[in-house]
Design goal:
GO molecular function, one term: bile acid transmembrane transporter activity
Structural class: mainly alpha
Number of helices: 24
CATH class of the largest domain: Mainly Alpha
Membrane topology: Multi-pass membrane protein
Shape: globular
Catalytic activity: L-thyroxine sulfate(out) = L-thyroxine sulfate(in); L-thyroxine(out) = L-thyroxine(in); 3,3',5'-triiodo-L-thyronine(out) = 3,3',5'-triiodo-L-thyronine(in)
Subcellular location: Cell membrane
CATH architecture of the largest domain: Up-down Bundle
Distance between the termini: 55 Å
Pfam families: Kazal_2, OATP
Largest sheet: 5 strands, antiparallel
Strand content: under 5%
C-alpha cells in the first residue's frame, strides 16, 4: 500500500503542471518584461476586486438602511422584513460549495464578473416593484389632499357627503383591492436579495485565492488587507446613500410634490428607497467589466516559481496524460472522502474550537439582530427621520467599527500577544461592550401622548393594554373608523389618531397647512386652552433630543469596544486548530454563522419587535399592515434586552474558552519546541505565539463584518 501511495505521489509530481522556470531561455530584457507584466496584472486585478468589494458592501448596507422604508411601502410587519433580509444568506449558501470547488477549475476572473452581473440583476429586481405597483397611498383626510371645501372630519351623518362621492370612493377601494389581492410585490424584493446572495458568492473565495496564487508572497497579505479595507468604506457610502434617498419622496418624478401632505418626520413617510438600488445595480455592472478582460492565469512571480506549493488553479488542471490520470484522480478523491469524517471528528473533538464556535454564533445572533433593526429603533425611540438615522450610522458608527478592528490588530502586534492573550482581549472586549450597552436602558424616550393609546382622552393617567380605547364620549357622535391612521397634533400637545377621533367639526386650508377647528376631544383635555389641531403627530418630549445625543455617544463607544475583539478572536480561531484543518475549520465556522445567525436572527428579532406595536395599519383590502406606533418603553426593553441576553450567553462561552486554554497551558508546554507534538490549542513556542504583523494590521474578514455596529 505504501508503494502504491509513493507511485501515486511520484506520478502527480511528474505530471502536474507547475510554472516552469524559463529564465535560462530568456534574455534579461524579456525577464524584466515578464516581471512588469506580472506586477501590472495583479495590481489591475487588485483594483478591480477592491471595487467589487466596495460595490457589494454598498448594496448590502443600503438594504439595511431601507428596512423601514420597505416595511411601510409594502405594508408588511417587521418579521417579514427579517425574512427578506435573511434571504441574502440563503442565496449565498445555495451555491457556496459548488462555487468554491468548481470555481477553481474554471476562469476565475470571468466567474467573478458573472457574479457581479447576477448581483446587479438582483439589485435591479429589488427596485422593480416600484414601477409596477402604482403610486404610494397614505391615509389622509380628504380636505388635506386637494379640496378647499371645509368638510367636517367628524361625519355625524353620512349624508354630509354626497352619495355619489361615497359610491365612487368605495368603487375605487374595491378596484384597488382586486389589484392588491393579485400580487404580493414584496416577494420580488425577497427574490432580488436572494439573487444578490447568489451573485456575491464567488467574489471572496475566488478573488482572494487568485491574489494569493499570483501575488509576490510577501505582498499577498498587504493586498488582501487593502481589499478588506475598501470593503469597510462601502457601508459608509451605503448608509449615506440611504440617507439621501430617504429625504426624497417615494414617487418623486411621478407625482406633483406640492400635493404631498406628509413630511419625512411622519410615520407614513416613504423615501425613494428604489433609487439607491438602481444606483447600486449600475455600480455592480461597472465593477464586473474589468474581469471579462483579465487573463485566466498570470505569470508566476520569480520568488514563487520554485515554491513547492502550486496555485489553487493549477492543482486541478493537468494537460498531459489525461487518460492515465483519470484513475489516479478517482483514487485520490476516494482517499480525500475517507479523510473527511476523521477530519470532522478531529475538529469537533477540539473543545476550544467548539466553545468558540458556540460563542461566535450566539454573539453574531446578537449583533446581526441589533444592526438590522438599529435604524428602526432610532426612528421609533427618538423620533428621528430615516434620513438622519442613516446619516448618523454611516458617518459615525461604521468608522468606529473600522477603527476598532484596526486597534485590535495593533494591540496584538505592539504587545506581542499570544493565543491566551487573544482570548482574554476578545473576552474583555465583549464584556465591556455589552456592559456599555446596558447603560442604554436609561437613555430612552417616554411614549408620545397619543389619545386612546398611551393616555386617556382626559389626560389623567397612562393607558394599559386592556384600557386602550380609541372611542370616547367626546367623539361618540362621529362616524369614525378605528383602522385609520391620520394623526393630528392638538394644541394641548397630545396626538390624536385622526381628526375624526379628535371630534373636529371643521377644517381650513389644504395639504400640510390644514388646520382643524372645534375639536371636542382637544377641548376636554385637562391642560387644553384651545380646541384646534394641525396635521401630523406631535413631537417627542423635550428631553428626547438630549437622550438621543447620549445614545449616539454610548453607541459609538460600544461599537468601537466590541470591534476591538474582532481581530484577536479571529486569530484565536486560526491558532487553535491544526494547520491542515484551517480551511475546513473556517468553512464550518462561516457556514455556522450564516445558517444559525445570519438567517434566523433578523426573523426572530422582527417577531419580538412586532409584539411592542400599539397601533397597526390596515391594508386596503383588510388585514394587518405595517405598524404605525410602537410602545417606546417595551421596544427599548425588547430590542436591547434580547441583544444583551444573547451577548451575555456568548460571554459565558468565551469564559469557558479561556478556562480550557488556561487548563491546557502549563510550564511543560512552554518548553516544547515548535516541532514538538502538541494537542490542539496547546501553548506554542514563543515565536509561534507572536502573530505576524501583516495578518493583524490588515482588516480580517468575517460574515457581516461591514455592518457590525
Amino acid at each position: 500500500m505504501e508503494i502504491s501511495s509513493k507511485e501515486n505521489t511520484h506520478f502527480f509530481s511528474n505530471n502536474t503542471i507547475l510554472p516552469v522556470d524559463r529564465s535560462s531561455f530568456k534574455s534579461e530584457s524579456s525577464a524584466s518584461k515578464e516581471k512588469q507584466s506580472c506586477c501590472g496584472g495583479i495590481k489591475i486585478f487588485l483594483g478591480a476586486l477592491s471595487f467589487v468589494y466596495f460595490a457589494k458592501a454598498l448594496s448590502g448596507s443600503y438594504l439595511k438602511s431601507t428596512i423601514t422604508q420597505i416595511e411601510r411601502r409594502f405594508d408588511i410587519p417587521s418579521s417579514l422584513v427579517g425574512v427578506i433580509d435573511g434571504s441574502f444568506e440563503i442565496g449565498n449558501l445555495l451555491i457556496i460549495i459548488l462555487v468554491s470547488y468548481f470555481g477553481a477549475k474554471l476562469h476565475r476572473p470571468r466567474i467573478i464578473g458573472a457574479g457581479c452581473l447576477i448581483m446587479s440583476a438582483g439589485t435591479f429586481l429589488i427596485a422593480m416593484p416600484q414601477f409596477f405597483m402604482g403610486r404610494y397611498r397614505y391615509e389622509r383626510f380628504p380636505s388635506t389632499i386637494n379640496s378647499t371645501v371645509g368638510l367636517s372630519p367628524c361625519l355625524q351623518d353620512k349624508s354630509q357627503t354626497p352619495l355619489s362621492a361615497l359610491e365612487k370612493s368605495q368603487a375605487k377601494i374595491n378596484a384597488g383591492c382586486e389589484k392588491e389581492a393579485g400580487s404580493s410585490m414584496w416577494i420580488y424584493v425577497l427574490l432580488g436579495n436572494l439573487l444578490r446572495g447568489i451573485g456575491e458568492t464567488p467574489i471572496q473565495p475566488l478573488g482572494i485565492t487568485y491574489i494569493d496564487d499570483y501575488a509576490v508572497e510577501e505582498n499577498a497579505a498587504l493586498y488582501i488587507g487593502c481589499v478588506q479595507t475598501v470593503a469597510i468604506i462601502g457601508p459608509i457610502f451605503g448608509f449615506l446613500l440611504g440617507s439621501l434617498c430617504a429625504k426624497l419622496y417615494v414617487d418623486i418624478g411621478f407625482v406633483d410634490l406640492d400635493s404631498v401632505t406628509i413630511s419625512p418626520k411622519d410615520v407614513q413617510w416613504v423615501g425613494a428607497w428604489w433609487l439607491g438600488y438602481l444606483i447600486a445595480g449600475v455600480i455592480s455592472i461597472l465593477a464586473s467589466i474589468p474581469f471579462w478582460f483579465l487573463p485566466e492565469h498570470l505569470p508566476k512571480p520569480e520568488s514563487r516559481k520554485d515554491s513547492s506549493t502550486s496555485s489553487e488553479h493549477s492543482k486541478f488542471i493537468i494537460e498531459e496524460s489525461k487518460d492515465q490520470c483519470t484513475s489516479y484522480w478517482q483514487q485520490a478523491k476516494l482517499a480525500e472522502m475517507a479523510k473527511f469524517l476523521p477530519s470532522l471528528k478531529n475538529l469537533f473533538g477540539n473543545p476550544v474550537y467548539i466553545l468558540y464556535l458556540c460563542a461566535s454564533v450566539i454573539q453574531f445572533n446578537s449583533l446581526i439582530g441589533m444592526v438590522t433593526y438599529k435604524p428602526k429603533y432610532i426612528e421609533q425611540q427618538y423620533g428621528q427621520t430615516s434620513s438622519k438615522t442613516n446619516f448618523v450610522i454611516g458617518l459615525i458608527n461604521i468608522p468606529a467599527v473600522a477603527f476598532g478592528m484596526f486597534s485590535g490588530g495593533l494591540i496584538m502586534k505592539k504587545f506581542r500577544i499570544g493565543v491566551l492573550g487573544a482570548a482574554k482581549l476578545s473576552l474583555g472586549s465583549s464584556f465591556f461592550g455589552y456592559l456599555l450597552l446596558l447603560s442604554l436602558f436609561a437613555m430612552g424616550c417616554e411614549n408620545s401622548d397619543v389619545a386612546g393609546l398611551t393616555v386617556s382622552y382626559h389626560g389623567t393617567k397612562p393607558m394599559t393594554d386592556y384600557e386602550q380605547a380609541l372611542f370616547s364620549e367626546c367623539n361618540s357622535g362621529c362616524s369614525c373608523s378605528r383602522n385609520d391612521w391620520d394623526p393630528i397634533c392638538g394644541e394641548n400637545g397630545v396626538t390624536y389618531v385622526s381628526a375624526c377621533l379628535a371630534g373636529c367639526q371643521a377644517s381650513s386650508g389644504t395639504g400640510k397647512s390644514t388646520v382643524f377647528f372645534n375639536c371636542s376631544c382637544v377641548g376636554t383635555f385637562e391642560s387644553s386652552q384651545s380646541s384646534s389641531a394641525v396635521v401630523g403627530p406631535c413631537q417627542k418630549g423635550k428631553e428626547c433630543p438630549k437622550m438621543f445625543l447620549y445614545f449616539l455617544v454610548i453607541s459609538v463607544i460600544t461599537s468601537y469596544t466590541l470591534s476591538v475583539g474582532g481581530t484577536p478572536g479571529y486569530i484565536l480561531l486560526l491558532r487553535c486548530i491544526k494547520p491542515h484543518l484551517k480551511s475546513f475549520a473556517l468553512g464550518i465556522y462561516t457556514l455556522a454563522i450564516r445558517v444559525l445567525a445570519g438567517i434566523p436572527a433578523p426573523v426572530y428579532f422582527g417577531v419580538a419587535i412586532d409584539t411592542t406595536c400599539l397601533k397597526w395599519g390596515s391594508k386596503r383590502c383588510g388585514g394587518r399592515g405595517a405598524c404605525r406606533l410602537y410602545d417606546s418603553s417595551a421596544l427599548r426593553y425588547v430590542y436591547l434586552g434580547l441583544t444583551l441576553v444573547l451577548g451575555t450567553v456568548s460571554i459565558f462561552f468565551s469564559v469557558a474558552v479561556l478556562w480550557v486554554l488556561r487548563k491546557r497551558s502549563s510550564p511543560q508546554d512552554e518548553t516544547l519546541s515548535a516541532n514538538g507534538e502538541r494537542g490542539a490549542c496547546g501553548t506554542k513556542s514563543r515565536k509561534d505565539n507572536f502573530v505576524n504583523s501583516d495578518q493583524l494590521i490588515q482588516s480580517t474578514y468575517w460574515p457581516e463584518k461591514e455592518t457590525r455596529l
